Amino acid sequence: MKPDLKTRHGGKILADALAGHGVRLAFGVPGESYLPVLDGFHDQRERLSFVICRHEGGAANMADAWGKLTGEPGILFVTRGPGATHGSVGVHTAMQDSTPMIVFVGQVGTEVLEREALQEIDYRRMYGPLTKWVGQVDRVERIPEYVSHAFHTATSGRPGPVLIALPEDMLYAQAAVADAPHYRTPRAAPAAGDMAELERLLEAAERPLIVLGGGGWSRRAEEMLRAWAEASGVPVATSFRRQDHFDNRSPAYAGDVGLGINPALAARVKDADLLIAIGARLGEASSSGYTLLDVPTPRQKFVHVHAGPEELGRVYHATLPINSSYEEFVHALSQLKVRKEKNPSAHAEYLEWSKPRPMPGAVQLGEIVGWLSGRLPEDAAIANGAGNFATWLHRHFRYKGYPSQLAPTSGAMGYGVPAAVAASLADPRRVVLGWCGDGDFLMTGQELATAAQHGAHPVIVIVNNSMYGTIRMHQEREFPARVSGTELKNPDFAAYARAFGAHGETVERTADFAPAFERSLASGKPAVIEVRIDPDAITPATTLSALRATALKNR
Ligand SMILES: Cc1ncc(C[n+]2csc(CCOP(=O)(O)OP(=O)(O)O)c2C)c(N)n1
Ligand SMILES: [Mg+2]
User: Fold this and answer.
1) Residues with Cβ < 8 Å from 443, sequence gap 6 or more?
2) Alpha helices, H only, 310-345
3) Ligand 1 centroid, distance to 348 Cα (angstroms)
């Protein structure tokens, strides 16, 4: 018998579809272009919340962080033209970071399409390269189909963002249609013969190394892999900003193959006779600018495991390409018997590399990160944006399990605050650290208002060196002693935080950090700790003055 279907407007059909796919929170900035959707949220308010953000860039980054933390698509709502353009930074990050995300964007009515009506954009052209798929729903009764398509595309293979445009008249139109069932993500598994071939390669290898990366992991996959790697002694590294894919405390952990890589690890990658990349694309940031492996034919025997078949053979020719989800692959790997690895020194090299080193000034960032690494609960989430300040975190913090690292492999500034807010909203009991630079923070710092409004309470650290330090570092190398376009005059960050109802602290000496952190955590509010560092301390390894002197000498 045909179910008795209620007639609903498009906004209700959409909100009901989201609730049916298990969505709890959506992030966005409202627009008059999608009022019926907000009306649909009103009816679904017991199951579905709309996190009202202050900038679409912040909202998009929150949606990305949600996708990274839950494995479910982060849901983003933005209005036409200006909202769609503001939000693009987080969509680009979701693409580069392989994060499942669904962007819903307002569109002008179908009766005026293609006239360049108010705020009109052809999203297929604009968002084509930034997403896995762009669709536009032209008939209200097809909303359940499009939404189901979006969830499946965002989560399957190599996860990523998809975008659905919502013409205004379509949202107001009514239809009596059935909801689609909850999406089900298909999972690829190694083909017959793949694992036997891998076993032979492992048996023959003297210096095997595993590199993990990409999106679509699970805690179970990480735990199974850790057990196998520790039993077999094969060292495991992670790619850039994927350090939570493997417990850094494991004796099998070799460090991260990221920007500013440990030279001993870079040598180990180059010298490996068998390299197994699981989920990693080994892109520019995770291959020292495509120098660790030859393109297209690596010197190492290369096993490339990826959930997206389009990534296999895209840059590197693999000795053995395996199209598989990571949990399925790791499960199959853990059935393989392997002799104990002969070269167990990788973890010792990592420990040596990650020891804090002294830097100029009264604040020692390495010590602070080391302290945080011991102080934060095991399940804390750690978010950061982009800039040199992040290198202390990545080098000295021990990530303890998946998923705990929210970090844009896209290198997008402004990610830390919104990601920390999203993590705190996803699980209010979780301790969340946001790690920002002074330039980085002010790109999305206004999302402190979103945190205060919705009850998120991350602790945000701002490493303040009064400049766009990363760019200044490159400037001193290329054009020594010619400072241009990189200085910053900053506000009083603690006072700025208080203006949002957040807790504010200023730290100028290492010893003052721990009590400031404890007060911040105890405040129960979003908190900001400005840490003023000596601007000469440009990386954990060198100073601006040393860079300048070297560059001047080499001129
Ligand atoms: C959205 C965005 N804009 C510009 C850049 C280029 N960029 C990379 S790092 C950086 C400076 C970061 O400054 P800050 O946050 O103060 O960190 P610092 O390098 O000083 O530690 C800039 C401008 C970028 N990566 N992302
Ligand atoms: Mg700075």
Assistant:
1) 57, 385, 413, 414
2) 326-333
3) 32
437 lines ligand 1 (CB under 6 A): yes
For residue 9, which phi and psi values (nearest 5 degrees)? -80, 165
What is the DSSP track for 499-534?
HTT-EEEEE-SGGGHHHHHHHHHHH-S-EEEEEE--
- Reduce the DSSP state of residue 412 to 3 states and report it: coil
Whether this model's pTM surpasses 0.90: yes
Q: Which residues contact 404 (CB under 8 A, 6 or more apart)?
A: 244, 379, 380, 381, 382
Identify the DSSP state of 444.
H
| Cis peptide leading into residue 296 (ω within 30°) | yes
* Contact present, 298 and 274 (Cβ < 8 Å): no
Record the tokens describing residue 38, joined without a space.
Answer: 């907000």
Report residue 412 CA to chain centroid gap. Answer: 10
Q: With 0-12 CB in 10 A as exposed, 13-18 as middle and 19+ as buried, what is 173?
A: middle
Q: What would the pLDDT profile of 350-402 be if each residue is shown by its tens digit?
A: 999 999 999 999 999 999 999 999 999 999 999 999 999 999 999 999 999 99
Residue ranges near ligand 2 (ion) with Cβ within 5 Å: 437-439, 465, 469
279, 213 Cβ separation under 8 angstroms: yes
Among 33, 38, 35, residue whose Cα is nearest residue 117: 33
pLDDT band at 555 (very low <50, low <70, confident <90, very high): confident
DSSP summary character for residue 310: G
Task: Say which range, 235-249, 333-347, 486-500, has the weakest mean pLDDT.
Answer: 333-347
391 lines ligand 1 (CB under 6 A): no
Rounded CA-CA distance 506/516 in Å is: 8
How remote is the CA of residue 224 from the centroid of ligand 1, in Å? 37
SS3 at position 491: coil
Q: What's the CA gap between 71 and 59, in Å, rounded? A: 17
